[in-house]
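INTERNAL AUDIT FORM
Audit reference: QA-55
Scope: verify that the stored structure record matches its stored sequence.
Auditor: D.O.
Record contents follow.
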Amino acid sequence: MENNNQNHENSQNQGQKTPNNTPRERRPNPHRQNNPTQNKSEGQGENRNRPHPNRKPNPNRKPNPNQEVNGNTHDTPTPNGNKKPNPNRDNNQNRNTNNPQGQSKRSGQPNRKPNPNNKPGGKPGGNKNRGRRKNVTTVSDAMRASIEENARVKDATMNPWKQIDMSAKGKIRFTPLGGLGEIGGNMAVLETETTAIIIDVGMSFPDETMHGVDILVPDFSYLHTLKETKDVYIIITHGHEDHIGAMPYLFKELQFPIYATPLALAMIENKFNEHGLSAHTNKFNFVTLRKQYQIGDMKIEWLHNTHSIIDACSLALETPAGTIIHTADFKVDHTPVDNYTMDLQRYAYYGSKGVLCLFSDSTNSHNPGFTKSEKVVGKTFDSLFDLAKGRVIMSTFSSNVHRIFQAMERGVKHGRKICVIGRSMERNVETNRALGFVDIEDKHFIEVHEVPKYAEHEVLIVTTGSQGETMAALNRMATDEHRHIKLKPSDTVIISASAIPGNEASVSGLMNKLIKAGVTVRYKEFGDIHVSGHASQEEQKLILRLIQPKFFLPVHGEYNHIAKHAKTAVECGVDERNILLMSDGDQVEITTKYLKKVKTVKSGKTYIDNQNNMTIENDVVLDRQKLAEDGIVNVVAQIAQSNQKVVGKPVVTSHGLVADKDDKKFAKEIEVLLETMMLNMKPEALKNHRDVENEIRNVVRKHVVRTKKRYPLIIPTIFII
C-alpha cells in the first residue's frame, strides 16, 4: 500500500508536467505480466519490492524482519518475546502462491469450511460476489409509481389548507381586547364586512399596586364604535371568570345577543341577577354541540373540549375568507371526570377540509409533555382525607366544578357532611346540581350553622379564597373574622389551586396566616393536589397537526407564552412567515393570501370595586398609587395682593413623605420657598387664583425632588386677600 500511494503521487506529479491539450503518452510497464493466470497479488508483491527511483530513503525507518525477500520470508522471531506464534496462521509463501483448487487462502485451518462460491477455474482465492449487496430489491416501474403516489398523498395530508379556495375575496379582522400579555381578561372581536362577534368577555385580577381595586375588566370603547356599523353578537366558550366575569359590566353599557352552552349561560344569569340585569336574559341563546348556527354572515359550531370546567368548547367559524378554528382554553384529557372526552374527530374533520387560521391557547406553552388528567386530583383527595384527623377545609376556584365534585365525592366516601361556604361557591354548586352536573343527594349537605353539631372528622367544608382574596371566606377564617367557622389545630386546609400570576404575594400571605393559626396546610407539597386545565406542548402539537392551518395566531397568555407557542407551531410545519405575535389592541387582517397587522385600536382595563360593583376612574387609581408610593403634601396659605407677601405662617402638612419629628423643619423650608416665590412673581399673576396654585405646586415639587427624591401629590390651598 505504501508503494501504491507513492506511485499514485508520482503519477500526479507527472501529470502536472503534461500540457492540457496534449494526450499523455503511455509507456509500457516492464513489470506487468501478460500471463492471465498469474495472481495479482504476486505482481503487486514484485512492484512492492522494487525500489522507486524518485523515492528517498528514510534514515529513521527500521527494517522489517518479516519482509519478503525474493518471495521468501525470514523466520526471524518477533522482537516481542511474550507474543506466541499462531499455529493456524498461514505462511507468507502460501498467501503468495496460486490456488488452482479454488481453496481459501486460509485452507490450512483445520476447522475452516470450504466456500461453495469458489468454483474451479475462477480467480484464485476470490469470490465473485465479494463487495456486492445480497438480495438487492429490484425497483420496478410499478413500485416507483406507487412511491411517488404515496409521497403525493402524504404531502396533501400534511398541507390540507391547500384545498382552500384561493380565489375567495372575503377578508376578516381579528382584534384582541384582553388576554394577551396577561393571564385572564380574555376578550376578542372577529369581524367581517357586516358582522362582528365578541369571543368571551372575561375579567382579570389587579396587582398589589391597584389599591381598592377588586377586579379588572376590558375597555369597551371599541365595541361602541362597532355597534353603529355592524351586527354584533357575543360568543361564549365556557363559564370561567376570565371568560364571562365582565359580562354584567358590558351589559350595563351595551346589550348584544349571547350564544353559549347551558352551564355558561346559567352562570351568566347568576351574575345578571346580582347586578339587577335579570331583564336581559331574553338575549340568551342555548347552543347544541356539533350543530352549525348562522350568526350574521358566519356559520359557527361549538366543538366540545376538555378543561377544568364542564361544557367547555372550542369554536369552528366558517367565514367569507375561510374556516377559522379557535381552541379557547383546553387540554387533551383522555380520562375526564365526566367521561366526555375532547371531540378530536371533529377537529380532524375541519382540519381535513382545510383551515385558514388557527387561534390557540398558549398558557402552558413552556410545559413539556402532557398535562395530567383531572382524575389524579381525586386520588390525592383520598390520601389527604385518610391523613386528616379533624375537619377538612378544601378551597379552590368556585368555577372548577370537576374539582369541587371530586372533593364532595371523597367527602361522602369518608363519611363526612358537606358544608359549602362562600357566595360564588354556593351559587355555582347549586347551579350545577340543578343542571345535573353534580349528582350528590341533599342528605349529605349541611348549613354552616350546623357544623358544630357534628364531630370534627365528620365535616368537609368547601369554600372560596384560594387566591388569598381579602373578603373571601378562607381569608376571614384565617384572620378569625368568620362568623361561624373558627379554625382549630386539628383542622386540615387543602388549597387545590395554583396562584394566578400577580397573586403570589396574596397566596403567600394567606399561607402564613393559616400556619400561624396552627392548622395543617396542604398545598404544593403534594404534587397532584392541583393540575392545570391548559394544554402542554404535546397537546398543542396534537391540535396543530390535526388542524394543519395556513396561518397561526397564538392567544391567551403572556408574550413569552405566545412566543414559545409560535416556535412549537413552526416545529409542526407551520410556515414561520404565517405566524404573527399580537398584543391587546392589535388588529390583524386575514385573507386567503396574507396575514398582516393593519392598525391598533383603543384597549386597556377598567377598574372595578366589588363592594359596590362600581367603576373606579383611572385618575383615582393613579392618585392612590402616588399616595402609597410618594405621599402627600398639603399647603394652606393667605397671600396679600397689595404687597405680595404671605400673611402669617402657612400651614404645611405631609403624609408618607417625612417623619413626624421632621414636620416643623419641612414646614419652615416650604415657608421660605413661598416668600421667595412671591417676591419674584409678577403682580398681574395674582389676579388668577389657579396660576398661583400651579406655581406653588411646581416650586414645592422641585424642592421635594431635590431633597427627598420623591414625587408626592401636592395640594395647595390659597386665599388671596
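Auditor finding: record pair retrieved intact. The chain is about 30% helix and 20% strand.
Action required: none
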